[in-house]
Amino acid sequence: MPPRLRSLRAHLLALWILLLASAAATAYLLTEFYTQSAAVQVAQAELQVARACREIGDRFAFFSAGWSGSVAQVDDTLKGQLTDVVVTALAAHPGVEGGIWTAAGGSAAYAFPTYEGTGPKTDLPAAELDTIRRVNAETLSGGRPVTTRRVARTQTLVVQGCPLRGPIQGATAWTMARVYTDQGRAYGQLLAGFGFLAATVLGSALLLGRLLLLLGRRIARLEGQLGRDADEGGVPHEGELPRLAPTGLRELDRLVEALNAAGARLAAARRRAAEAERLAALGQLAAGIAHEIRNPLAAIRLKAENALASADPARPRAALDLVLVQVARMDRLLRDLLSLTQKRAPALAPTDLAAVLAESAHLHDDLARAQGVRIAVAEAPRERPRLDEAQLRRALDNLLLNAIQHSPAGGVVRLSAEVAGERLRIRVTDQGPGVPASLRERLFEPFVTGRPDGTGLGLALVREIARAHGGQVRLAAPPPDGPGSGATFELDLPWSLP
């Protein structure tokens, strides 16, 4: 089983699809890498806020050491002192803010010593206040550190609460950090990766699209050039490869050069074959002429010798009559040969096809009656195609004579014409024995005949007339009835309206 064939365009399209799949996989890997990088940032932020929260606890324990009793309410003086504790604890933790929270009074201290804005930040972040309150409440009720995350589109908020041991009742410490996932090295790498990926995919798509377009146009141009059977001068020349123009693509031009070289070799081989065929045809023609002329000359010589040797005065007269008959035969042979060899372009003119068919049939009525044959003419198209009427009549004469001579007594020769698309088809059908299989391949060659008294030039002349009109003559397929069912010759000519 032969391997499945695919076009170059299909291969390039498959390559483009693979490129898209590779780009999608790369984008997925970049996203995963960024996600993992963001997760590492969040984990590092959690570790930092936990350390900062423990630092606040240690500083608070040092600050409250030696106190006696418990403190239920935190006044402004104590708030200021606690704020200093928080500032001292968070000074070594960039990006971390925090404070001290009491169950009874809420925020007892707040500080963000590494804040990068203008001036120190002393106000609690209002947007995160509920989260801070909830974390401190969970820490107080559980008596252990509590960490929570709040993930938004551009940032992740990490908050931790730590229980405080000391004189202030219901006190907890809290720290908070923001991880901006749309900033930093990982996010920059992600954007750069996606930008590079988009540029390469778009560039590859444009390059492949341009390549497909160029290939399509160049190949279409080559197909158009190969579809024209013409020589370098633009004259139609059947069977030869036209010379192809370069396409501008190196790979295709190598193919073009190979085709041009093959075309040149083919043209040279065709010229050699045509020359050999012409010489063979000339040899066959010379042999045929010699054979056809030798028989009449032999008859003339025999009659002349008999007339000279005979004392009967009537013998010379009979000999001269036979000489004239044989001379007429040779004259007819030479006239057909001249018509066959001296080709001329047909003089096309609007032709009354129905009248030509009827007159050609009427011209052979006497011969048909003498043979006991009837000629039947079917109704012809009324349009007037452009044909050479004289050449058409001569072709019909040869076809009708051939059909009459091969038809038995009582037979019918049918003459018809029809239009099939842009073609005119004229058929002559007889009821004779048909054409022997041995003659069908060479039937239209000169001096090929199935009759002992035939010259074999009639059908060859019909072929030349058909070719001069841009058409052809052919023997239709033998009828299904087998031998003895007759033969049909068909003239296939271009239908050219004026």
TrEMBL record:
Its EC number is 2.7.13.3. PROSITE patterns: HIS_KIN (PS50109). Residues 288-497 form the Histidine kinase domain. GO terms for molecular function: ATP binding; phosphorelay sensor kinase activity. Residues 475-498 are annotated as: Disordered. Gene3D superfamilies: 1.10.287.130, Histidine kinase-like ATPase, C-terminal domain. It holds the Pfam family HisKA. Keywords: ATP-binding, Coiled coil, Kinase, Membrane, Nucleotide-binding, Phosphoprotein, Transferase, Transmembrane, Transmembrane helix, Two-component regulatory system. The chain crosses the membrane at residues 190-213. The keyword Kinase applies. Residues 252-279 form a coiled coil. It comes from the Bacteria. This is histidine kinase. It catalyses: ATP + protein L-histidine = ADP + protein N-phospho-L-histidine. InterPro entries: HATPase_C_sf, HATPase_dom, His_kinase_dom, HisK_dim/P_dom, HisK_dim/P_sf, Sig_transdc_His_kin-like_C. It is an enzyme of class 2 (transferase).
